[in-house]
Design a protein that fits this description.
Layout: H1 2-5, H2 7-26, H3 31-57, H4 65-94, H5 96-119
């Protein structure tokens, strides 16, 4: 999907969907609502990893992309671990709904940064790749 629609566009849309899922999860008062929120989160996260991978490797020479994907994957795993720890702290301080809303807000804060990156790329994308 990101190769056809553009990685920035898909990433931005995915982050908005993830934020919506987190907001619904924060306000869930029943198992059904929480299950619906989990589905929304899955729909948002599904295109996110491929889009971010494309964004992080597009400007690199072909020979450097495998290493970049490895570094990206490792950084993603470290980020998930750190996020879980920070989430636990937020839950301890303010409770689950507030922690989920904080994470939702963080997702939305990235969207303008993506738009800025799209309007001012550091390196032009290779021919045929939509960013």
């Amino acid at each position: 999907m990101p190769d056809r629609l553009g990685a920035v566009r898909v990433t931005g849309a995915a982050l908005v969907v993830v934020a919506a899922g987190l907001a619904v999860m924060a306000s869930a008062s029943s198992f059904g609502v929480a299950a619906l929120a989990a589905v929304v989160l899955g729909v948002g996260y599904a295109p996110l990893y491929p889009s971010l991978t494309l964004l992080s490797t597009t400007a690199l020479p072909e020979r450097e992309r495998p290493t970049a994907i490895g570094v990206f994957s490792a950084a993603t795993s470290l980020g998930m671990a750190a996020g879980a720890a920070c989430g636990g702290v937020l839950i301890g301080l303010w409770g689950s709904p507030a922690a989920l809303l904080c994470v939702a807000a963080a997702q939305l804060l990235v969207v303008p940064v993506l738009r800025l990156a799209r309007s001012r790329p550091l390196v032009p994308a290779p021919e045929g790749v939509r960013v």
